[in-house]
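When time allows, look over one protein, given below as sequence and tokens. The question is which stretches look regular and which look disordered:
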Amino acid sequence: MKLELIKKTAIAAALSVVAVAASAMTPMQDESLSQVSGQDGVSIAANLNVNIGSFQYTNVADANANINFNNIKAHGLIAATIDVISGATFGAIRTASGVSGTFFDAGSDVVQIAIPDATKVTLPTAGLLSVSVDSITMGGAAAGSSFGKFAMNQIDLRGTSVWMWAH
């Protein structure tokens, strides 16, 4: 019985050594590393279904007159990528876009959130973002007749980029 336990322990120890050796990380030389390729960043996709009961604007300078936008809805698909880019890359993007100024430290890395352009992401027209307001009224939220409603359909944000950095 003891001999059986010793055999099982020896086998478990040998398997552990093999598993650790197989998963050990080894350093790579620059020449070998230059042959490695991969992709970085994160991709995010969302199917938006946002409903807002009402949005009210009140002009306090004019006896609290107000206008209400009721039953606001936003729905559709949106996709974005998130990458970290160097300050030099961001500087080149700014220069190509004609943006200048000293608001950015060129030594900083930048988080880039980009909605892929139409050449990289194909969405059906029905999947594009749409926003609608069911009624527009004056006075209290339920007061008055509606002025009507409006909708913005097929809002295409592909090709849009947003950048964030610390300062």
Notes: Confidence is low (pLDDT under 50) at residues 18-22. The chain is about 20% helix and 40% strand. The chain has one domain: 35-164. The first strand starts at residue 42 and ends at 59.
